[in-house]
């Protein structure tokens, strides 16, 4: 059980590191292509 808790903690940490924080209505440009962030309220 201890190992399972350790794995869960590591997994949660990895997810947090991968999350992208952005400002409200911020626009992204990747490889010259304008990308709007997904907005669940809009969809």
Q: Residue ranges: pLDDT <50 for 5 or more in a row?
A: none
Given helix and strand content, the structural type is: alpha+beta
Major sheet details: 2 strands, antiparallel
Strand adjacency order, main sheet = 1-2
Shape: elongated
Integer average pLDDT: 70
**How many domains in all?**
1
In angstroms, what separates the terminal alpha carbons? 41 Å
Strand content: 5-15%
> Count the helices. How many?
1
Number of strands: 2
SSE arrangement, N to C: HEE
Share of helix among residues?
25-40%
Radius of gyration: 16 Å
Itemize the secondary structure elements and their pairings.
Elements (H helix, E strand, L loop, with lengths): L1 H17 L9 E3 L2 E3 L8
Antiparallel strand pairs: 1-2
Structure description:
The protein is an alpha+beta fold and 43 residues long. It has one helix at 2-18, and strands at 28-30, 33-35. It has one domain. A hairpin with a 2-residue loop joins strand 1 (28-30) and strand 2 (33-35).
Features:
40% helix; CD2 antigen cytoplasmic tail-binding protein; two-stranded antiparallel ribbon; 1 helix; single chain; 2 strands; elongated
Short note summarizing the structure:
The protein has 1 helix and 2 strands; from the N terminus they run αββ.
């Amino acid at each position: 059980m201890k190992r399972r808790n350790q794995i869960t903690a590591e997994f949660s940490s990895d997810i947090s590191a991968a999350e992208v924080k952005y400002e409200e209505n911020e626009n992204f440009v990747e490889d010259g292509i304008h990308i709007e962030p997904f907005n669940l309220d809009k969809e």
